[in-house]
């Protein structure tokens, strides 16, 4: 092990502690030590160090993720030119369609949700800002994947089988490729229960001067989405929202 690799390993282990705390909700040194297969004193040192940053909070002998992460996440979102160009449009899209509207972007091999807007009548997808899912697993991600450079698509699809989120997720790369070509040509994507059972998505890419910014989408019950006239109207509504976000981005 080289001297330069030691701090990198330490950082990786610290993030492992954070992942465990997020999963467990709260935990003490003994529990973290068991989960990480380290001594209790080592686990304690990690927890104390993280608590000193404010990103982890000690409460009655146990540790949990602190709200400082929420602060940083909110700042990150509100610094985004894409988000600021789309915020009002996404809210308007939800109001006009009566459905749950979402804004997302690509990161690595995932679609990441930046923002959503809905009301008590909208479907509930149990998503939140920062939620991520494999980019191939629903319409909002596939409109991004379809607009990636060919070499990037080849890289992401160079597997025997893609991850399944539901039984309806397309997991065969060879079956997905022609769908991506169709999505790129028609400028939108529709899926039925590929991400959430009982729910479908209509999505469009947001492009500005050749740059792929992200995607805007709506989620609704698959029963409504299978109605041809409703689906076509929804596609037009989402396309209009994508175009409005693009214009806002241009002049933001």
TrEMBL record:
GO MF terms held by the record: DNA binding; DNA-binding transcription factor activity
Domain annotation HTH iclR-type: ranges: 8-67
A Pfam short name: IclR_C
Gene Ontology biological process terms from the UniProt entry: negative regulation of DNA-templated transcription
Domain called IclR-ED: residue spans: 68-251
Keyword Membrane: no
UniProt keyword terms in alphabetical order: DNA-binding, Transcription, Transcription regulation
Cross-referenced SMART domains: HTH_ICLR (SM00346)
Name of the molecule in the record: IclR family transcriptional regulator
């Amino acid at each position: 092990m080289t001297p330069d690799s030691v701090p990198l390993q330490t950082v990786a282990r610290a993030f492992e502690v954070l992942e465990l705390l997020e999963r467990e909700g709260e935990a003490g040194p003994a529990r973290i030590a068991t989960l990480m297969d380290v001594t209790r004193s080592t686990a304690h040192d990690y927890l104390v160090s993280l608590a000193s940053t404010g990103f982890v909070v000690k409460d009655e002998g146990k540790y949990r993720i602190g709200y400082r992460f929420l602060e940083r996440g909110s700042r990150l979102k509100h610094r985004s030119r894409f988000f600021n160009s789309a915020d009002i449009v996404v809210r308007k899209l939800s109001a006009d369609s009566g459905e749950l509207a979402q804004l997302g972007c690509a990161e690595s091999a995932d679609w990441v949700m930046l923002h959503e807007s809905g009301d008590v009548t909208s479907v509930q997808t149990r998503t939140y800002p920062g939620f991520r899912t494999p980019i191939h697993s629903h319409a909002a991600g596939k409109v991004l994947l379809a607009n990636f450079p060919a070499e990037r698509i080849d890289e992401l699809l160079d597997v025997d089988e893609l991850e399944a989120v539901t039984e309806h997720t397309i997991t065969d790369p060879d079956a997905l490729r022609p769908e991506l070509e169709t999505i790129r040509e028609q400028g939108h994507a529709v899926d039925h229960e590929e991400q959430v059972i009982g729910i479908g998505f209509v999505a469009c890419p947001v492009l500005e001067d050749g740059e792929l910014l992200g995607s805007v989408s709506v989620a609704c019950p698959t029963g409504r989405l299978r109605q041809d006239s409703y689906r076509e109207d929804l596609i037009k509504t989402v396309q209009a929202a994508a175009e409005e976000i693009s214009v806002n981005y241009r002049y933001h």
